[in-house]
Write a structure and sequence with these properties.
By secondary structure, this protein is α+β, with helices and mostly antiparallel strands. The strands form 2 sheets. The protein has a 7-stranded antiparallel β-sheet, with helices on both faces. A 5-stranded antiparallel β-sheet has the order 1-2-3-4-12.
């Protein structure tokens, strides 16, 4: 499948990866130089303000792209009625004068026990923040990576939302706990998307 709309190119991934696992799609954006792959059954640019709220807070900008794995709010599917609510991957790009100015964007959501760490990420110098927030019976697990290239701050985020198991059920019926192996699979899928990110023209040898 090939769709060209402005600067967005979306293709169905082929080759060994597609043959040995679930089909994947490749997202590529010309102006930002960002590309990544994601499972073909995920939703591209779905309306998910809640899942990307932290990213918008730290960047003060709307995401360039969002891919979402539907959870228990979907009309059907393997996660309906389970404690997996939703998951999303998103990224934003904004101008910054220095790398430190870029990395400071993570400070508003960092806590005493949740500090950004200096890492080498996909061959690039970066800062990585893992944070969890519990609100009204849900837990949001965020991973945000910030990297700086040629006057631009790139922020990438994955968020996985889980729901408290309610044996009595609510308006949507009982909530079942996913098996640990299923949770590991979901986390591995999001780690795979984050690990597939490439920024065109980046050599990993500095800003």
């Amino acid at each position: 499948m090939l769709r060209i709309s402005g600067v967005l190119v979306l293709v169905l991934a082929s080759g060994l990866a597609a043959q040995t696992g679930p089909a994947r799609r490749l997202y590529a954006d010309g102006p930002s130089g960002v590309s990544f792959s994601y499972p073909a059954n995920w939703l591209l640019n779905a309306d998910d303000d809640a899942a990307t709220a932290k990213l918008r807070i730290v960047s003060e900008a709307q995401p360039v792209a969002v891919v979402q794995l539907e959870g228990n709010f979907a009309d059907a599917g393997p996660y309906k009625g389970t404690d997996f609510e939703a998951g999303a991957f998103a990224y934003v790009v904004s101008p910054r004068k220095t790398a430190e100015h870029c990395y400071e964007a993570l400070d508003p959501i960092a806590g005493d026990e949740q500090k950004p760490m200096a890492v080498t990420w996909n061959g690039l110098a970066a800062r990585r923040l893992e944070a969890k927030y519990s609100v009204a019976g849900t837990e949001d697990s965020h991973e945000i990576v910030a990297t700086y290239r040629r006057g631009r701050c790139y922020l990438f985020e994955t968020v996985i939302v889980s729901q408290a198991v309610d044996a009595l059920g609510g308006l949507d019926g009982p909530t079942k706990a996913l098996a640990p192996a299923r949770w590991r699979m979901i986390r591995a899928q999001f780690a795979g998307v984050l690990g597939s990110v490439r920024i065109a023209g980046s050599s990993g040898k500095g800003p």
